[in-house]
Amino acid sequence: MTLNVGDKAPQFKLWNSEKEEVSLFDYNGKNVLVLFFPLAYTSVCTTELCETRDSMKKYESAGVDVIAISVDSLFVLAKYKADHELNFPLLSDFNKEISRIFGCLYGEYIFEMQGVSKRSSFLIDKEGIIRYAEVLENARELPNFAAIKEAISSLK
């Protein structure tokens, strides 16, 4: 399944690194940037999430919440979040269901790992409509932050 701009975002419920259940319903009436990333403690993922951390004031001032999702366990994500002082929720899609629903799951990743999230970005508006969608096939690429910021500036 491929999600596109204009589609209604699928609802989901996942556990965060603080062992709390988080739902997309929790963000009803809010703009939210959902970032899928392959694996904690890898170089490009760390670059992406630290850049996001460093830009949080800009996201907040634009009225956008940020959440990041990977197939890592919530325990790994808790350590990763603390180690890198990440200032947004990290959610565990350990069972790979949400990555599959969003169309961003590798069949096979490096070292024959299967079922790892593709680096992906979905900007979802207050009504739950996808306003930006990017699914990268190459895990060594970063999201197009300029395009994301442009999409954010077009939100009402």
Layout of secondary structure:
Layout: E1 13-16, E2 21-23, E3 31-36, H1 43-54, H2 56-61, E4 64-70, H3 74-83, E5 90-92, H4 97-101, E6 105-106, E7 116-117, E8 120-124, E9 130-135, H5 145-153
List keywords for this structure.
about 160 residues; alpha+beta
As a percent range, the share of strand residues is 15-25%
Q: Could you give the order of strands across the largest sheet?
A: 2-1-5-4-3-8-9
Shape: globular
Question: How many strands?
Answer: 9
Q: Which range best describes the helical content: under 10%, 10-25%, 25-40%, 40-55%, 55-70% or over 70%?
A: 25-40%
Are there runs of 5+ residues with pLDDT below 50, and where? Answer: none
**Quaternary structure state of the chains depicted:** single chain
N-C termini distance: 28 Å
- How many helices does DSSP assign? 5
Mean pLDDT: 94
Secondary-structure element order, N to C: EEEHHEHEHEEEEH
Rg from C-alpha positions? 14 Å
Largest sheet: 7 strands, mixed
Q: Assign the structural class, choosing from mainly alpha, mainly beta, alpha/beta, alpha+beta, or little secondary structure.
A: alpha+beta
